Amino acid sequence: MKRFFCHLFFSLTIFSLHADNQTTDLSPVGNETSLPFSVEIELASFSLPTGIQAFASAVYKDQWIFVAGRTNGLHAFDDVGNNFPPNFQNKIIYVIDPSTGGVLSRSLEDPTARLTQEQIDILSVTKSQFFQKGDKLYIVGGYGINTTSGEMETKTALTEIDLKKLVKWVKSGKPSLRSCIRQAFHPYLQVTGGALYQDSDHNPFLLALGQNFAGLYHDSSNGVYTQQIRAFNLVDKNNKLSIIPKELSTTNPDYRRRDLNVVPVIINNKPGYIALSGVFTLTDGVWTVPIFISPDGKSSEPDPLSAGTFKQAMNNYNCPVIGLYSAHSKDMYMLLPGGISYGFFSGGVFQTDNEFPFINQVTTIKIDKKKRCSQYLMNNEYPYIVSTGTNPGNQLLFGAEAQFFPADVDLFRNGVIRLDKIKSPTVIGYIAGGIMSTLPNTNTRFDTTASPYVFLVRLIPRQ
């Protein structure tokens, strides 16, 4: 009997069924020497005040903002009880200055917040979808407690947060946090484990993939997957927000995905999005073929049965993604550092593991101007740090549910880094938070915790 990650957000359980991936084969993993750069990941000079994972984030005036998420690691997978204990829902908003490592924080339950219990519940969920637009942060859905009913649920809320007011409230307690937010509610928004984007004011918001999970999560549980890219318009009338769903796209069984990376890309100088891998197939395997998404929400998936179709081999779960684009060569690159993976290298040999282990290895996926994809193993990975807690002396494994924060580098409008502007070794950003594991494969929540570590990422152009 094999162990498999069959979870809402990275739980483990036991099945006698074989995990069948979307495809029986994978595209080859090349060497980084084929790329125009290499990367280094180093421990930063500061850390987070506490471990946090699966959170929403924003950047305002070079300050990092952390909202919601969880403060423990891999959740339990027991058949009884709540495997997502509400006491681990993050109810603290953090404002961090990466230039000094300084931290400011304030609780959602602070009297100056003046939030209702419902609003506290909504702003402390795990695995929400979020998107920053100027000085506003939009948070949609997510899974967490309904304190009034005592039930666990996926929220139906969209919350708009005024970041300028939010930072002021964290620093001084004024104005109230309640005055910093506006909300809209709709069943269309009841999603967790997906992604939220908007390319421009001329395009709708896109709520990509994910699921609606209701009640307590146990090892045999399943939510209702959206199996689609949902589009909606946000209406601001008389200072009140509402949404107008666009006509639902048809569902696609290959879109039965969650806990994945959906990221902005530029392909042949045109913006869009790509959904990479994710979980789960009906037999608890990983998806391997990407989904291409246009700014209006239209999407397509290459034929999984075609020999020429790209099939992702590694870094299959949500992890930090660093996007870079060269307008000169018209090549798009996505760095995927660590996380949970079907494939990995051991002793220089590619291997696979149906238990989907935590890894520290980094791959880069390249998309050329004709949408042809290829993947490469980077020589460097997360630094070697040993556990001083559970399983002392074991190497810590990072990346799952962590996030990337760009440094002061040139970006395209959609947040992709302008690769052509980087002429010498440059710190392009930081990786913060996430789950850290003391073992590649684990079936107890005590083997993992939320990570307080911050890592800097340096890009080194190849001469």
From TrEMBL:
Swiss-Prot/TrEMBL keywords: Signal
Q: What InterPro entries is this protein classified in?
A: Quinoprotein_ADH-like_sf (IPR011047)
This protein's superkingdom?
A: Bacteria
SUPFAM superfamilies for the chain: Quinoprotein alcohol dehydrogenase-like
Signal sequence extent: 1-19
Name it. Answer: Conserved putative secreted protein
Q: What species does this protein belong to?
A: Estrella lausannensis
